Amino acid sequence: MQSATRKLHYVCRSDEIGEAEAKGFGPFDGARRKIVLTRRRGVLYAWLDACPHYSTGTPMAWKTDAYLNGEKTHLTCHSHGALFEIDTGECVLGPCLGQKLTAVDIAVSDEGEIFVAAPAEEETT
Predict the structure, then answer these.
(1) With b meaning 16 or more CB within 10 Å and e meaning fewer, what string describes 6-33?
(2) Which end of the chain is least crowded, N or C, by CB within 10 Å?
(3) Can you give the pTM of this predicted structure?
């Protein structure tokens, strides 16, 4: 049975994720995937590093923190060439068109510390 309270994991300070940047963190507490943190128009977003094209959720970056396309306008799965909207996680180009990345809950403290919670399907009991 899943706990109603999920553990938050510290990832970094807010000022460490610049506009049009994306960085991977984790995996945390036995989870299989990293969490991608990115910023667009000043808003932070967190996504599970798993392209929905395959049921196993292929990691998207081909090298450390290479989660954005060349123009830095979309998250990209470099294995499949899929493009995802940064703010919605929706695939707009590629083999998983119409599917979405898995959103990750995020919290920012008054001191600018960023915390994430593993998605339910990644939690261990």
Answers:
(1) bebbebeeeeebeeeebbbbbbbeebbb
(2) N
(3) 0.87
List of residues 6+ apart from 75 with CB closer than 8 A? 22, 36, 38, 47, 60, 67, 68, 69, 83, 84, 85, 86, 89, 101
Domain ranges for the chain, please list them.
8-119
Which tokens in the block code for residue 108?
């920012």
pLDDT > 50? residue 3: no
Rounded CA separation 35/84 (Å):
15
User: Which residues pair with residue 32 across a beta bridge?
Assistant: none
Q: Does domain 8-119 have CATH number 3.40.50.300?
A: no
